[in-house]
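Data card: per-record layout.
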Amino acid sequence: MAAGVPPDALGRRISCGTDHGTVRYVGSVSRTAGIWLGVEWDDPQRGKHDGSYEGTQYFKCRHPKGGSFIRPNKANFGVDFVTAVKDRYGLNDKQDVQYGTGNTVVFGTKTVEFVGMDSVAEQQRQVQLNKLVDISVRECAVSHAGQEEEISRTCANMRHINLSKNLISSWETVIAIASQVQNLETLNVSENKMRFPSTSTFISSAFSNLKILALNQTEITWTEVLLCAQGWPVLEELYLSSNNITVLERPDNVLQTLKLLDLSDNQLLDGNQLHLIAELPRLEQLILRNTGISSIHFPDAGFGCKTKMFPSLKRLAINDNKISQWSSINELDKLPSLRALQCNNNPLMDTEKNPETLIQLIIAKISQLEVLNNCEILPAERRGAELDYRKIYGKDWLEAGGHWNPEKNKPSEEFLAAHPRYPALCLKYGAPEEGELKGRQPLTLKNQLLTLTIKCPEKPEQKPVEKKLPESMTIQKVKGLLYRLFKIPGSELKLSYESSKLEGKEVELDNDLKPLQFYSIESGDCVLVRW
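The structure for this 531-residue chain is written out next.
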């Protein structure tokens, strides 16, 4: 092997300036002198060809112009882990700021020489390295573990390591580093294109305490994840975005402690792939952003029932996908533990012109949802959404066989498939009355005015007052009106209302910036004023 070229250069990761690549060939090239490295570049625009030169194929590239030849002296094969840590934290020989250069210490203008200062400086560096708990050597060209046991001697207290975007070529290198860190809890090796075991191998104890692992942009497959996962007995969070994972397999006896799984930016074959990971018992958060899924279905549960899949799932992100049908939103109500959902940037979002209407429909369709697109769902907002949903689809319910009389109430399978929560909403609020189901009237000023009765429960001597108020009037402006009406400071007022259709139920008007229509107040309702 030529000088400057490691004996294991083939397959190694290198950097050249700001570019990264993988060595695919080491040797001579026709009609040229000396040794060349054939490199497949991460960024194909850095390359010139597909690994062939003057009709001879020296190596292969995935991209037709992803490869080129460089001289070995242009390639950086990287450094060992401890060297990178010392460089990153200014603790190497060249940066020994405490003792200056050589064996001298400066006191004012005098330079005093000490015998054995090199060893003292080294001891000081050792102490400082051993104090490090959270270490980041991102983009420090780390390629190998270094001398045997050097990491355990110098960085004994590390718990959290960021090794992202380095020159690590294989999972074995990661094991060699991690096996020297006794209490490793968090490891980020993202943006290292490396080789992973393809068959069951010796299970290392290097990750016996590991709880968080990031493998984004490492080209790992799901099969390789499951093989490696045998060595992750207590892992709780696994990040796998941008790995070209298309198919999943059941994780039998592995990943059983997992609470968070991120599969973002992997184009899954279809939504049914999710069924293969649906039995993970402790999974609380699943991130599926930009995975190409167009539908979600839990076939084990019927209308209004809960699925046995994803029993612990509380938070789900399905934004930036291809979901276009409301049936997928209906299916999410089957998840027994779902509390938070992100679903922005799906074709479904374009089905309603008014974004507020869209949000209300989602809230009404998923009964236990507490957070939607990072916004908390207030109790009054849920109540308003469910009442509106019940009213809007009441006519369809009647036409499909719905009836106020429970004995005659037999809505069609088609209606229940489209509106599986409708029966539950009728039980919660009562079946919609005929007067509620009239078609929407033109939005004239008269139609927008609400006739409301205003009462002061704490002042029985105050007679109820009837007022006509625009449904677009904010609670803050209503308080201002009542201040003038009752001669009391608006800031001290507490408002609520009772619906004429739901006796005994009182709803607080607790957001000054919201309009009356936000709370689904209707003509005939009673506003209660307290202070």
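Known properties of this structure: The mean pLDDT is 87. The first helix runs from residue 81 to 88.

See the next section for split statistics.
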